[in-house]
Write a structure and sequence with these properties.
Length: 135
């Protein structure tokens, strides 16, 4: 996004909200959009949540004054899941039948049918497919 484009986007958001958004979410994974999401938030209290993964690990540039005044930015890799703490809890809940993961599985196929699994995914006809190695 060019500087002109970034200024225009911020202007539109300021006009819509009067001062900036309380929250912004970046879901694409582009450094320029991460900066834009941050700059679109309310000075002093806006919060930006980064959901997208920047594939090239490009740095982002944020105004230090904005951070000192209270704007915040955070990332949520895997939704904030802490594997060492959270996975044992999730497994325990699954084993106690408190967490219905089986209901999320739409297809079960053998390894020989793996191409069908990819076709179902590409067609949008499968949410979760388990590929069994021993069937």
């Amino acid at each position: 996004m060019t500087e002109v484009g970034a200024d225009y986007e911020n202007k539109v958001i300021r006009e819509m909200t009067e001062v900036g958004a309380d929250y912004s979410f970046e879901c694409i994974g582009l450094a320029s959009l991460m900066e834009e999401a941050f700059n679109s938030t309310r000075p002093g209290s806006g919060k930006t949540v980064i959901l997208g993964m920047e594939q090239k690990a490009m740095p982002i540039s944020l105004g230090s004054y904005d951070l000192l005044r209270g704007r915040t930015i955070c990332g949520t890799l895997f939704g904030g899941l802490k594997p060492k703490l959270d996975i044992p809890i999730l497994v325990d809940r699954y084993l106690k039948k408190e967490l219905n993961l089986d209901g999320l599985i739409t297809h079960e196929l053998s390894f020989e049918e793996i191409n069908k699994a990819f076709d179902l995914l590409a067609e949008g006809n499968s949410i979760r497919c388990v590929v069994w190695m021993d069937k």
